[in-house]
């Protein structure tokens, strides 16, 4: 069994930031990541630009320079990779933590790598920085399991000339719709709200509205997809059910934390479905287990959350330092 001073589960921006802060108080945390460093960002749309400016995404006092006002996905990957290397963080990639059990004031973490090999770690402190993006909010409708349905959007090229329905009205849905329209896809947005979401980026909304007005993008308000078939979808709206020809569905309906893993760890889940934690210290109801990053974001699970989530490590380090 490998004994560590502190273990961070998840090597996203906020997990890396927490590791840097723990090193500042003299700990040498091990970061365990089930895929690659900042995996969630690597899954963002290929040509995406962040909502935030570079300085609001910085960690560890390492400057983030960009050729643009808003950095690109590629620039962010390079920045966080370089930050981890420069700070010489201990990152063990491609290993999952499957369970955490208490052990006389410490915790035993059960791991498994991509080859199925088991491992165990022991640590007094555990920081869960696992994010949301492996757990999309499912629609729970017939046909959701079809290959034509995806809860992620990477790039528009595969959809050239296709009839694509986008479910959702957030920034991710709108960005996808605009990219798809540019490559010649026939785009329909299906949105429960009765008007455009207030969260849409202010510089994007006029472009979207213009394309809806001229018919380049079809926008269905107060509507929801009730079933998905191989060649069509059924949409329920203000005028009843309608059947739309369809090739692909992008269900961009958001994400949620791994509630089962948290619950099995002993972390309670609040009525709204979010884990219990102290906002001043980031410690959960289980002493010694902390949350960092988007897993603690409640309703704000998007890229903007890096702006505030990167400071979670400071709160955690301060709280741990008081007990050292």
The name CATH uses for the topology of the largest domain is FAD/NAD(P)-binding domain
Largest sheet: 7 strands, mixed
- What is the radius of gyration computed over CA atoms, rounded to a whole number of angstroms? 21 Å
Task: Determine the mean pLDDT.
Answer: 92
Distance between the termini: 23 Å
* Number of alpha- plus pi-helical segments: 8
Determine the fraction of residues in helical runs and give it as a percent range. 10-25%
CATH-defined architecture of the largest domain = 3-Layer(bba) Sandwich
Structural class: alpha/beta
Helix-strand sequence: EHEHHEEEEEEHEHEEEEEHEHH
How many structural domains can be distinguished in the coordinates? Answer: 2
Give the number of DSSP strands.
15
Portion of residues in beta strands equals: 25-35%
pLDDT below 50 for ≥5 consecutive residues: which ranges?
Answer: none
Question: What is the CATH level 1 assignment of the largest domain?
Answer: Alpha Beta
CATH superfamily of the largest domain: FAD/NAD(P)-binding domain
């Amino acid at each position: 069994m490998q004994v560590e001073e502190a273990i961070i589960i998840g090597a996203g921006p906020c997990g890396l930031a927490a590791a840097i802060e723990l090193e500042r108080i003299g700990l040498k945390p091990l970061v365990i990541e089930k895929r690659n460093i900042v995996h969630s960002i690597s899954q963002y749309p290929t040509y995406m630009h962040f909502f935030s400016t570079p300085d609001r995404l910085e960690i560890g006092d390492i400057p983030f320079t960009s050729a643009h006002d808003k950095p690109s996905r590629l620039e962010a990957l390079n920045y966080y990779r370089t930050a981890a290397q420069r700070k010489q963080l201990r990152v063990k990639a491609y290993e999952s933590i499957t369970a955490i059990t208490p052990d006389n004031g410490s915790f035993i973490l059960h791991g498994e790598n991509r080859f199925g090999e088991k491992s165990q770690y022991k640590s007094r402190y555990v920081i869960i920085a696992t994010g949301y993006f492996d757990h999309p909010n499912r629609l729970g409708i017939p046909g959701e399991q079809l290959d034509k349905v995806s809860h992620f959007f990477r790039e528009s090229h595969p959809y050239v000339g296709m009839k694509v329905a986008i479910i959702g009205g957030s920034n991710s849905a709108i960005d996808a719709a605009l990219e798809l329209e540019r490559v010649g896809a026939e785009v329909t947005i299906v949105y429960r709200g009765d008007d455009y979401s207030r969260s849409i980026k202010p510089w994007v909304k006029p472009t979207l509205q213009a394309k809806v007005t001229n018919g380049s993008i079809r926008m269905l308000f107060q509507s929801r997809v009730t079933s998905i078939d191989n060649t069509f979808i059924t949409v329920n709206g203000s005028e009843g059910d309608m059947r739309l020809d369809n090739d692909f569905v992008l269900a961009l309906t958001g994400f949620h934390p791994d509630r089962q893993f948290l619950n099995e760890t002993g972390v309670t889940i609040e009525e709204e479905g979010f884990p219990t934690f102290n906002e001043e210290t980031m410690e959960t109801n289980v002493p010694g287990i902390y949350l960092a990053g988007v897993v603690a974001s409640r309703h704000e699970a998007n890229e903007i959350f890096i702006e505030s989530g990167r400071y979670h490590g400071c709160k955690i380090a301060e709280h741990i330092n008081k007990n050292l």
